[in-house]
Amino acid sequence: MMLSGWGRYPRLDTRLEAPRGEEALRALLADPLIARGNGRAYGDAAIGAPLTAQMRSFNRMIAFDATSGQLVAEAGVQLAEIISAFLPRGFFPLVTPGTKFVTLGGAIAADVHGKNHHKDGSFAACLDWIDVMGPDGVVTRCSRDENADLFAWTVGGMGLTGVILRAALRLRRVESAWIRQTLLPAANIDEAMDLFERNDAATYSVAWIDCLSRGAGLGRSLVMLGEHATRAELDLKRAASPFDIGRRPSLAVPFDAPSGLLNSLSVRAFNEAYYWKGRSGAGESYVNWDSYFYPLDALLNWNRIYGRNGFAQFQCVLPLESSARGMRALLEMISNAGAGSFLAVLKRFGAQESRFSFPMLGYTLALDFPVNARMLTLMDRLDRIVLEHGGRFYLAKDSRMSAATLAASDPRAQAFRDLRQSQSLTGRFRSAQSERLAL
Amino acid sequence: MTQGPVLIIGAASDIGRATAHAFAAKGHAIQLAARNSARLAADQTDIAVRYGVSVTLHDCDALATESHAGFVDSLPELPQIAVCVVGVLGDQAQNERDIQAAVAVMRANYEGPASLLAVLANRFERRGTGTLVGISSVAGIRGRASNYVYGSAKAGFTAFLSGLRNRLAKKGVHVVTVLPGFVNTQMTAGMDLPAKLTAEPQEVGEAIARAVAKGRNIIYVRPIWQIIMLIIRHIPEAVFKKLSL
Ligand SMILES: Cc1cc2nc3c(=O)[nH]c(=O)nc-3n(C[C@H](O)[C@H](O)[C@H](O)COP(=O)(O)OP(=O)(O)OC[C@H]3O[C@@H](n4cnc5c(N)ncnc54)[C@H](O)[C@@H]3O)c2cc1C
Ligand SMILES: NC(=O)c1ccc[n+]([C@@H]2O[C@H](COP(=O)([O-])OP(=O)(O)OC[C@H]3O[C@@H](n4cnc5c(N)ncnc54)[C@H](OP(=O)(O)O)[C@@H]3O)[C@@H](O)[C@H]2O)c1
């Protein structure tokens, strides 16, 4: 059948199976396969070549220890389920991406990051151990102490070392379901980066960036800081039931929008309105966890607003020392092209040592573009700027870069390829992305 | 309403599991019953970990009708709500050749579930409270060449539920008939079902919990099925018999 990731590009033919249990999964290993969680990676990372193993049946929770906050669960369990089970008991994921509809397997395989990367690190930071089914069908428990190599390559390994079956992860204790948000306007990219540096102590920080503004206003942004609200700081009504945020309505995008809907005019109008609304509302406010961490989740199937042709994400990270120059070059290229991205996000990363994970000390920029020839060319140009500044790319978002670009951006790719060869992983675990990138 | 225990018979099915989750989320203790219930240990833990409710496992074979009274007696507590999910789709072509296979489908969809609910109904009636839920099917509304063995047994079960509801209406016991259209489960795995007409098991589970809370009599899960079945019901037999459905 034809399958795509969240960006609905590319759409590729694959055989989709949803094994029920370990035995059924093992039986599938006859063909090269890739595990698929909830398909929130934007491109072709979770499309098997030729076989895709949907992990939805592996969705049981196994144990929870309220003293340590350790949860043991199967890989198909989604963060949304973890939040609904444990937030009422005062726990929240230590690290979460911008959507709660990801599985543990997907969060581990992409070693996802949240708005607290500079403080708490990537998803790896909350993992105690994982169980991985290897090419021979044998299940190995691995952690930093036990089978440490397998652990290190699997976290961030995009499913290419085996199928993650279970994980033990530690949740964070929180006193309420509310976030104290501080909104700081920045007139341009330099101010925004300066705000990140000065607010390094904040637990959460992220900036929405207007990539259509130019000149002195290049990269004007709204920097958003956040802290988990303590019970004591809530008003009486909220403090009485600190984990209750009421019902949040969700809306569905019922059909594909015409491809031209998100043109630079509408994006410009949106950005203008959003920035000025944010500026006037600058300061502190209390926001519930769902609106704070997952603003897009309320708009189900929002990926359809880009129309039938789909869209592509572009997410890179630049090392700290070249961030200011590099971000400027990227933003200039984008605003000159008039190719406003609807969702443009800038974030400071902390230091991270890892075998193949995306984050490193520096700044990350995430943008999305409708898929068409002009945008694909623009993204190729952005690739070059990233390479010139020593940056690299996020595979969970990628759907179009070339193997040469990956190799030039990330020397670790060769080591990963060698490992896959030597452990007979290459012929067993294979995605459309690993084929495209020659991993 | 009290948060008394909910018994799910046929708990190894996707719809059974989803129904257990929907009630556990509201704080009910859960009794999972199935053939060889030990294989449900992972579900038992899963539900207990997620919702912090007590979950127990019980063996029950719907075809062993003589054991049903003993099965209900063996439960740690008479449930407040009992949901019978048991059913077997069978293979229509095989059922036409092999009459014993057809009889097995009839028994698993009608005799077994009706016997179980009959035993529970008498206990609930004596107690004067409780809700019984039977999962039947839209296939029972009109017999079609492609699955009339299954459909006829579901028709029997639907009529049984309707009669039971009528009998117990003044006795404090409520009966809910669930007539799902297509549901994406093990039973339909590999079939090419139209997305708009196909419910996810979670939808069915949540619809059941809602129907119990609101005291609904008959639910179709996706409302469109009510319209489809209205049309199917009204096709004149002379036309209907010539259709390939
Ligand atoms: C709105 C939105 C916001 C996002 N925000 C962020 C963000 O802030 N930070 C961030 O880091 N990411 C972000 N992402 C990306 C997302 O977190 C990752 O793509 C994540 O991997 C998706 O998880 P999934 O369960 O949907 O996995 P899929 O998309 O199905 O798979 C992703 C990768 O994980 C592998 N995988 C999945 N399950 C297993 C398993 N059981 N065993 C082995 N490999 C497996 C797949 O093979 C594939 O390589 C965002 C995505 C969206 C749609
Ligand atoms: N899927 C659909 O499209 C659909 C549509 C309308 C109605 N339904 C009805 O929904 C119910 C659940 O079906 P499902 O789709 O979830 O499929 P399923 O997984 O096949 O569920 C059927 C369940 O019935 C149990 N069962 C069968 N014979 C039994 C017996 N003698 N004793 C005890 N349990 C027995 C099975 O238990 P074992 O695991 O032990 O085999 C299984 O758990 C069925 O009544 C079905 O007819 C389904």
Overview of this protein structure:
- The complex is a heterodimer of chains A (439) and B (245).
- Chain A is of the alpha+beta class and 439 residues long.
- Chain A is built from 14 helices and 21 strands.
- Chain A has helices at residues 22-28, 79-86, 104-109, 117-120, 148-154, 189-198, 236-240, 264-280, 289-293, 320-337, 373-388, 403-409, 412-422, 432-436, and strands spanning 2-3, 12-13, 15-17, 33-36, 51-54, 61-65, 70-74, 91-93, 127-133, 139-142, 163-173, 178-186, 204-209, 221-228, 251-252, 283-288, 299-300, 311-319, 345-349, 362-370, 392-393.
- In chain A, strand 9 (127-133) and strand 10 (139-142) form a beta hairpin.
- Chain A is globular and about 60 Å long.
- Chain B is α/β, with parallel strands linked by helices.
- Chain B has a single domain, classed as Rossmann fold.
- Chain B contains nine helices and nine strands.
- Chain B has helices spanning 14-24, 41-51, 68-74, 92-97, 99-127, 148-168, 201-214, 224-234, 237-240, and strands at residues 6-9, 30-34, 55-59, 81-84, 130-135, 173-178, 182-183, 198-199, 218-219.
- In chain B, strands 3-2-1-4-5-6-9 form a seven-stranded parallel beta sheet, with helices on both faces. A two-stranded parallel ribbon of chain B has the order 7-8.
- The model of chain B has no long low-confidence stretch (mean pLDDT 96).
- The chains are: A alpha+beta (439), B alpha/beta (245).
- The interface between A and B is small, with 10 and 10 residues.
- The complex binds flavin-adenine dinucleotide and NADP nicotinamide-adenine-dinucleotide phosphate.
- Residues 6, 34-41, 45-46, 55, 75, 97-99, 102-103, 105-107, 109-110, 112-113, 158-159, 163-164, 296, 396, 431 of chain A line the site of flavin-adenine dinucleotide (FAD).
- Flavin-adenine dinucleotide (FAD) binds at residues 6, 34-41, 45-46, 55, 75, 97-99, 102-103, 105-107, 109-110, 112-113, 158-159, 163-164, 296, 396, 431 of chain A.
